[in-house]
Specification:
Carbamate kinase, 8-stranded mixed beta sheet, 16 strands, 42% helix, globular, aspartate kinase activity, ATP-binding
């Protein structure tokens, strides 16, 4: 059985017009069984979080207003798609009524547990999938029957072996009878049957998990841009599509701020040997990126990525070199606080690490002051120069430092995987640094 997994993001299913275009794209892929994975309509997940938080704060009127807006958006889309049948309307109403009960319960208790939030957040995908499946006239499979996870609500981890068995049980029989089925991204369930979510952006992950479980021929990620670009087009209008790149390059770019692709999507697809293409629903016949096992961009620099909201914590201890296990003690602090460290730089007396600014900085400072003098540099951004041949091309370093001449750099790290050169600069200088680097590597030609 040749199978194609097609994931459509929030902007791709954002209204009736976009859903019609999704249907046209899906129907154009004749000759293969198609599993269509959909996100919530654009903006709906944010509204669901806002609604739940309003209820937690006992602002029930606000929560009800948001829920009414969510309901009307889906009812309006159903009418525009000529789907306002008793069945479709009834299924939308059922989800809305369940949300009404949820927000009243949250308001009554003044408590919003991660378990409850996952149940609320899952409603966006469940609503959009009703419309997409209805318009395509195909079966709708509840993703919670297939995507089995642990009980880490909010950012649940999938159980790959269980997903493979459940896909064989629930998806394969449907594909034997139908050419197209629709399911939801982002959501799953744990062993007891409670709804879980894979984290924001998890619809890409869902597509990768389903594709790997089915040994699909290809996974298509449909979004609002033409693949992975050489830089953020909002900063660099001349950014262009990267036509071919490796899984490692894609994962690095995603981790450092390229939001087109969820990083975890890469892993199950890589393990299963499945190519992933990233395409634009707004330009379905336009450029696209392909990530394929064994492939590589073959470039010293494939793209420039940037992530804001970074801080640097430095711990200075003059006798550090004489203390066996100092680094172990240092990183134990971050581990106990559940904080992920990005970049690390060490000298004889100082260790500096970069973190997201959302980290518990006050608590970390108190813990780290037991090890040495602590300083924090705020309002920083990390810029990554990514490319498979980066380390094998000495010219990269020269071009990088010429491009950022005059821009103070706080920290430099060459990734151990040899495809990532990272720089941390002040946020105020980050845009200019990205623009200069892109010009050096892509607009002046690689000399």
């Amino acid at each position: 059985m040749t199978a194609l997994v097609m994931k459509f993001g929030g902007t791709s299913v954002g209204n009736a017009e976009r859903i019609r275009e999704v249907a046209r794209i899906v129907q154009s892929r004749q000759g293969r069984k198609r599993i269509v994975v959909v996100s919530a309509m654009a903006g709906i997940t944010n509204l669901l979080f806002e609604m739940a938080e309003a209820a937690r704060q006992h602002d029930l009127d606000r929560a009800v207003q948001i829920l009414s807006k969510i309901e009307q958006m889906h009812l309006e889309a159903s009418r525009s798609l000529d789907l306002a049948t008793p069945d479709i309307i009834g299924r939308i109403k059922e989800i809305v009524e369940n949300l009404q009960r949820r927000i009243h319960g949250i308001d009554l208790l003044g408590e919003l547990s991660p378990r409850t939030m996952d149940e609320v957040a899952s409603s966006g995908e469940r609503l959009s999938s009703i419309l997409v499946a209805g318009y395509l006239g195909c079966p709708l499979l509840d993703a919670r029957k297939v995507i089995r996870t642990d009980s880490h609500f909010g950012t649940a981890r999938p159980k790959l072996a269980a997903i493979k068995k459940l896909a064989a049980l629930h998806i394969v029989p449907l594909l034997e009878s139908y050419d197209i089925i629709v399911t939801q991204g982002y959501i799953g369930s744990e062993d007891a049957g409670d709804t879980t979510t894979l984290g924001r952006g998890g619809s890409d992950y869902s597509a990768g998990l389903i594709g790997a479980a089915l040994q699909a021929d290809e996974i298509e990620i449909w979004t609002d841009v033409e693949g992975i670009l050489t830089a953020d087009p909002r900063l660099v209008p001349s950014a262009r599509t990267v036509e071919v790149l490796s899984y490692q390059e894609a994962a690095e770019l995603a981790s450092y701020g390229a939001k087109v692709l969820h990083p975890a999507t890469v892993r199950p697809a890589l393990d299963a040997g499945i190519p992933v293409t990233i395409r634009s629903t707004f330009k379905p016949d336009g450029m696209y990126s392909t990530i394929s096992p064994g492939e590589s961009s073959g470039r010293p620099c494939v793209a420039i990525a940037m992530r804001r909201n970074v801080v640097i914590i430095s711990v200075t201890q003059e006798s550090m070199t004489d203390q066996a296990g100092f680094l172990a003690k240092l990183f134990d602090v971050f581990g106990r606080r559940g904080v992920s460290v990005d970049l690390v730089s060490t000298s004889e007396i100082c260790v500096s690490v970069s973190l997201d600014k959302s980290a518990p900085l006050e608590a970390l400072t108190q813990d780290l002051e037991k090890l040495g003098q602590v300083s924090i540099a705020r309002e920083r951004a990390v810029i990554a120069v990514v490319g498979d041949l980066l380390r094998k091309t000495p010219e990269v370093l020269r071009k990088t430092f010429i491009a950022i001449d005059g821009i103070p750099v706080d920290l430099i790290s060459m990734g151990a995987n040899a495809i990532n050169l990272s720089l941390i600069v002040q946020e105020a200088q980050a845009d200019r640094a990205v623009q200069n680097l892109h010009a050096a590597f892509f607009e002046e030609g690689e000399r």
